[in-house]
Amino acid sequence: MALDVVVKKKKRRAFIILSIISVIWTLPVLWVLSTSFKTEQEAVSGGLNLIPKQFSLESYFYLFTDTNNNILHYIKNSFIAASSHTLLYLIVASLAAYGYGVLKFKGRDKLFWLLISTMMIPAVMNLIPLYSIMITLDWLNDLKALIIPGLGGIFGIFLLRQFNLSLPKSLIESAFLDGANHFQIYWHIVLPLTKPALIVVALFSFMGNWNDYLWPLIVINDDTYRTLPVGLALMQGNYNIYYSRLMAATTVSIIPVLALFIATQRFFIKGITMTGIKQ
Asked: How many domains does the chain have?
């Protein structure tokens, strides 16, 4: 009985802490959403009112109707870059994870942990070498510069490899005995079973590419290939900042990632909880 009371108290304490964290995280998002529905005059007047005094869709009409505004073009570029990068990364990461999690060869684990150690290198240290490679390949001002370089990311390989380690070894061994080759096992057995982990990796990959600001700012100078985060920064202007319009554009930029997360939430939670469980 006493143990049940202690457990209930711990659960209640954890719920309160998580609720406070959720409120702190949600407030800025609500502020952005609220400001996007305010008139520009109310947006710059200050105050802590989350509910607009005068509900206005003027900023959204501006985003989608003004001919001088390229927000839809930026969204298209970001979607093409993020989707292409995610698809290619899933192929690369799942194949690498199959090699490190299912195949058996000398020095496999040492090589894997050597690969993992590269995660300790700050990403900004790679900017100059990567930029030099982009110049050599003539990929500046090209969406390929936003799609290809990130395919060597280690996090997705690590996540999928840990998931592969949890797969029943008897299942893979039975496939070998039935005459299946490595590609058949990878395609027909490993990929379907690792679907939750693949969705987690896809979500992180898409979100990282969609929200990336620094790398597109460096390699893309042509407005034809400019992505949404850089486009949002340009909306601030040199002298005037239209806060309501900027918050409306920010709200629009959140929608694709939020919709993707809601659609894959069940698999996302399952993939996170099962990763790292080794049999």
From this structure: 1
Range of the domain at 195: 67-274
Residue type at 222 in one-letter notation: D
CA distance 248 to 252: 6
Kindly state the tokens that stand for 165. Answer: 């380690």
Interval 77-86: pLDDT, tens: 999 999 999 9
Residue 30 CA, distance from chain mean position = 21
142 within a domain of the structure (yes/no): yes
Give ∠ CA 219-249-61 in degrees, rounded to 5.
Answer: 130
Structural domain contains residue 39? no
- Domain of 175: which CATH number? 1.10.3720.10
Average pLDDT estimate for 136-160: 93
C-alpha pair distances (Å), 248 with each of 35, 39, 62, 109, 237 = 8, 11, 9, 48, 16
Residue 47 falls within a domain, yes or no? no
pTM over 0.70: yes
